[in-house]
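A student in our group prepared the protein record below, which I am reviewing. What it holds is a sequence and that sequence's fold in token form. My question to you is simply how this chain folds and whether the tokens agree. Do not assume that whoever made the record got everything right. I have pasted the whole thing underneath without changing anything:
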Amino acid sequence: MSKYTRIRSYSPSKATQPIKKSPVKRTSGVAKPIAKPVKDHGPVGNFFVNRWRWFKRLSKPKKALVIATPLLAFLILTPIFTYLYYANAISDPDRLMNYNNAGVVLLDSDGKPFYSFGTANRGERLPLDQISDYTEKALISSEDKNFYKHGGFSLFSILGALYANILSGDATAYGGSTLTQQLAKNTLLSKNQTFLRKYQELTVSLAIEQRYSKDEILDLYLNSVYYGEGAFGIGNAAKTYFGKSAADLDLAESAMLVGVLPAPSAYSPVSGNPAYAKERQGTVLGRMVDNKVITQTESDAAKAEVLAYAPQSEGQNGTAPHFAEMVLNELYKKYGEERVTRSGFRVTTTLDLALQKAANETVSKQISFIQRNGGSNAAVVAIDPATGEIRALVGSADYNNEDFGKVNMAITPRQPGSSIKPLYYTEAMRRDLITPATILKDEPTDFGGGYRPLNADRRFRGNVTVRNALAQSLNIPSVEVMQKLGVANTVDTLRQLGISTIDSSKDYGLSLALGSAEAKLTEMTNAYAAFANSGKQYETTSVTEIKDKFEKQIFRNTTKTPKQVMDADSTFLISNILDDESARAPVFGSSLNTNGYSVAVKTGTTDEARDAWTIGYAKQLTVGVWVGNNNNTPMNNGGSGMAGPIWRSVMMAGLKGQSNQPFTAPSGVQRILICKSNGLRAIGGGTDGTYQEYFKSGTAPSKTCDVPKPPEDSDKDGVNDDRDKCPNTPAGTKVDENGCPVKTDDEGGTNPPDTSDKCQNVPPDVEVDQNGCPVSNNGNGTGPSPVNPVTPPRRN
């Protein structure tokens, strides 16, 4: 039997089948395989290997066809798809200008931009007749001298740039782009230096040339290009650099602006390199001379001109930088940073630009006083109580300060001191634990565990009403109020009012009554805003509308539903106390008064004056101010002295031109006469030692104090009725101690009185005797005689 004869098996199983062997040929007694086994590259690898083997078997003409087909498809289909993709943008000039916007523009509540970054704020589009001829000529001479001759691109320029790039060894050194190509790149395409982008650029340029006239293309370019210093468009650039309109730019100014275009940051004469900027200006002027649009004399005069640049002190982005950062962070959190920046968001905010500037100026003016008293920083928040919209926000006294300026103290937790007191006083009133007339003890008190708080002035006033305790910010009575309410209930109240930094699991103790826990100025200010809105609180908001670069609305804040966080009756009582200038005067004087406006206000100062607060509200506006040091070092003055002046100035700026809106008592509040000494209801009709106080219905004191009504003087003669023997004496009549008229001498004489006067109606300048009769001056008996007295005239 042969060596390779198959051996049959009686089992049908594969496992028992004989192994097939490849035939081999013997060489010198050694067996070798006839064919080399094929290597397995996997499904994908095998596909490409097989295609390559197929390609190698093709003839040369077929190989050329295979190579040319996809290249031709690319060259033909790319322009078609590129045009279809950008057709809508190309057909609409506004859409064309804004298509490639990236970044964000923030607008105030009136639609005025106050902050931007990226290319989102291209500004207003000006027609060519509102742009200086010098600017147009400078641009064409510098960037595209054959602009009016080519059809969108210049083949010679492209070949020349390609040759220059080869010589320089840098494929991107020279662009060779026309103004139309630059417009396509700047507004629609990316700035990637690739063949695909360049090919798309040619396609889009041809489409733009077909859609617009040369003047329209020039206008679109001038209004969309970036000139540096945050200025997009020639209108913004003229105002930013020279403080004038684009139509008023002279030759030197136009050449300077066109000169910065290749590298705005590097060539900016303001923040870049002035020497480079001047050199670029000269280059532009030289090209204008070469193109014969100006003379050499005009060029020399323009070079010699000393340009006057507009002040760049604050800049647009310096008006509300912390507010802008806060808004951007909210947008990034909601939409993601990439979408926000790539969509060219135009965000209408709640900012009142005039109030913001007033707050900035006030802080700037006050900071020297703050520094003299050991402080260095301040923050301001203004909120509309009726909407929760943030109207102004100053995060620090100097945003550019390297040590602390970038920290937004408006949202940084700090101890609020006594400014926290109204928040738990109102809850104690809601629970009927206190009324404005409740008597509290302002005397040395140990509240347990050795906790013995003191007032700021280290004085004790004995019995005080809740009204005076809160208005004068007395500490010992306030701790008593929190003790009545309970620390846990206080914590719940603070969290309900939006103080997010309060930790419900933490045991603060009674020191919480004096503001030992930290809180944010924004949240404290919004808590006070609920008082101004009868206990209704809106969530703070800083954005009202968002649109993308195509004016598509992304968001609009239309759902504003307040939350009733306090009852209206209790909030009125607190507002009435904090608006009581006479109640706070013994401690604070008149420094917080607001010229007749109904404004409730409370200060706060922490230990060693490390934090100084003042928060107050009218029905139209709530303003909160913090003053201190970021490193928490002590100061030499407290809330009313440090934060109070800023608060008052910002509040008055916000109320300017508005009518007063007093805090009016709700129907559930009544006013009752109370005894000052004990807080009881006054009866008896008297008013001495009493005052009018407000109470929630059912909370007025049931116990009384007798204040007798003083005796009346019905005829107003100065003698009370109980001892007036001559009632109803005519007003103005001189009376004696019995209330009876005093009988006086006639006609102004002094002696004798009318009761013993025998000569009535003697003129006052006549000398009389003891009987009231005139004395004879000549002794001849011609004068009146006592025997013949003057008879008074008859009365009918």
Remarks:
- Residues 60-91 form the longest helix (32 residues).
- DSSP finds 24 helices and 20 strands in the chain.
